[in-house]
Amino acid sequence: MNDHFINVTAENLADEHLCCIIRTKKLHPGVEAKRQWLSERLKEGHVFRKLDEKATVFIEYAPLETAWVPVLGDNYYYLYCLWVLGNFKGKGYGKSLMEYCIADAKEHGKSGICMLGSKKQKSWLSDQSFAKRYGFEAADTTDDGYELLALSFDGTMPRFTQNVKKQEIENKELTIYYDMQCPYVCRYVEKIGQYCQENDVPVSFIEADTLEKAKELPCVFNNWAVFYKGMFQTVNLLDTAALKRILKK
């Protein structure tokens, strides 16, 4: 078993596989956008730790103050992603990555770690049942079942911004907020844009391209959020079938 993990740094970022399923010898626009996004975030204390393989085995977290999510709190880490997929499951990699994050937080005197969850597991969110084994619990909730999970070391708790509680916008057409934290986003923006153009569906894509914009978003957010008829729908990236179900509402 390969148990050698490495952290992505400014020095090795250009050469490292970024751990998602996307694997191609050619430059991939989503991967390169992620690489560019990371190059700026690493300066802010963002951590991307991965198995030294071309595999989906990694954890990604950042100081909450500079995490591109509408969550507030003092001295926390925000855990964006923890993924172990395919043949790498069941080998203790998830445990190693989570324990690294917890140890890192304690070493840096953090108050705790938080992450986005949901009462019903969403396919594009990290496994919250796994996180709860380590003591993560709901620190804040929305009326539609999303949760801010937190592992607190000192009794303090983070919270969603007030905008998140609305989960509602004035624009009634299909509206998608996104950033470039996920390599898949480019592809889904292109696919949904093409479908909407071919089927005369009005759509607005709004990129959260600064920390300030991300903190002010009107809904829960990891890197993607969908509204329709003014109401928040999902954080899941949409294939055509899922998009059609939303448009029928």
Task: Pick out its properties.
249 residues; alpha+beta; Glutaredoxin; 2 domains; 4-stranded mixed sheet; 13 strands
What does this structure look like?
The protein has 249 residues and is of the alpha+beta class. It has 2 domains: 5-161, Aminopeptidase; 164-247, Glutaredoxin (3-Layer(aba) Sandwich). It is 26% helix and 27% strand. The chain has 7 helices and 13 strands. The chain has helices at residues 29-41, 93-107, 128-132, 162-166, 185-198, 211-215, 240-247, and strands at residues 5-7, 47-51, 57-63, 71-72, 76-84, 112-118, 137-141, 146-152, 159-160, 174-178, 203-207, 224-228, 231-234. A 7-stranded mixed sheet has the order 1-2-3-5-6-8-7. A hairpin with a 4-residue loop joins strand 7 and strand 8. The longest helix is centred in the middle third of the chain and has 15 residues, at 93-107. The protein is globular and about 50 Å long. It starts with a strand and ends with a helix. The mean pLDDT is 92.
CATH architecture of the largest domain: 3-Layer(aba) Sandwich
Q: Count the helices. How many?
A: 7
* Separation, N- and C-terminal Cα atoms: 48 Å
Strand order of the largest sheet: 1-2-3-5-6-8-7
The biggest beta sheet is recorded as: 7 strands, mixed
CATH topology of the largest domain: Aminopeptidase
CA-based shape: globular
Mean pLDDT across residues: 92
How much helix, percentage-wise, in residues?
25-40%
